Amino acid sequence: MSIFRDRQVKFFSIFIVLYIALIFCVGAWFCQAQITASKSMYLEHNRAIISALLEQGISKEIIANAIFSTDTSVAGIELSNYLGITSYTIGSTLPHFSQFQNQFWLMFFGSCTCMIIVLLIGIISFLRIRNKLYQRAEKIIDNYINNDYSCHLPQDSEGEIFHLFASVEQLATMLQAKNETEHKTKEFLKSTISDISHQLKTPLAALMMYQEIIESEPDNTNTVKEFSQKIGIALKRMEQLILSMLKITRLDTGNILFDKRACSVQELIKNAISELTTRATQEKKQLIVQGTPNQTVICDMDWTSEAIGNLVKNALDHTEAGGVIEITWESTPTMLRILVYDNGSGIAPEDIHHIFKRFYRSKYSLNTPGIGLGLPLAKSIIEGQGGLISVQSVLHEGTTFSVSFLTKS
Fold it and tell me: What pTM was estimated for this model as a whole?
């Protein structure tokens, strides 16, 4: 039984077994003592009778026959009744028996008292040890309630109470993890709100300035037209910023469930660059797509297209006119890797470990378009599906982004 795996219960059970054995031993000793006392009383009584009869001149033969006789006569019974020796006679009035009776009760109450004391000592000791365990557990659980998880419930033994402690400890671990998650979520939201607020200050200030210029020169058509266009650009930047931040926030908090299925890589790349081919043509940059047509990859088509599109967009931002952006893919039995290469400005060694941070802008790319969220968003999308994203770059020579996915679920 699992209850006897508890060390304290096991020791108390051993004590009970020993106590029962002690009861039998004391009982046996008590019975033997009473037998001995009864025999002594019987002998003393017979000796007194023999002595009295001898003094009366009764022969030894008659006395011996009387002492060893087991027969009872009517005359003997009548004489006993006449003398007051009956079953109703008070024991204290009978010679020798009075002493035996006093000795019996003294030994009985003495033995019972000792046995009760031993039992009480065992029970009280067990309850005190158990009570200390409960008080310790109560203190630790109170600490858990107050979000203090520095101490832990004892789990160094087996038994029902320690199984309960293990369950409470598991619950405390879950609560601790939940509290830490809530704390991280609060910090994340705080950081996100701070980032959005900081990034909106510049376009909002620009909008206010443009609006003041238009108000000050309402009759100047060229001025109104110029700054209206700038207002439109600023509004688009704000919209892009807010949408990107919302997407990253939803991805990082796990509020997006990816619809992962087998997708054609060729179709994936086509969706990713569909809105960028016109820009590449206008900027006189060449987009080259190469890869096995029938290759498939397990991913969410829409989100992955956006991630790869952000990589291509980043390549366009950092490539001069006449530059080349290549999108290729290669496969192994278990992995498929999509490569986005450009021969643009490249990434400085001191920047390469920071490019996936939000709003990070290198000192070498302050004049390039973008808000610093395209690469972080791509990383969140790829890693959110269990993929990997990495980068290799040489300053002034070009950059290659690598996206890897499992080809089998």
Answer: 0.51
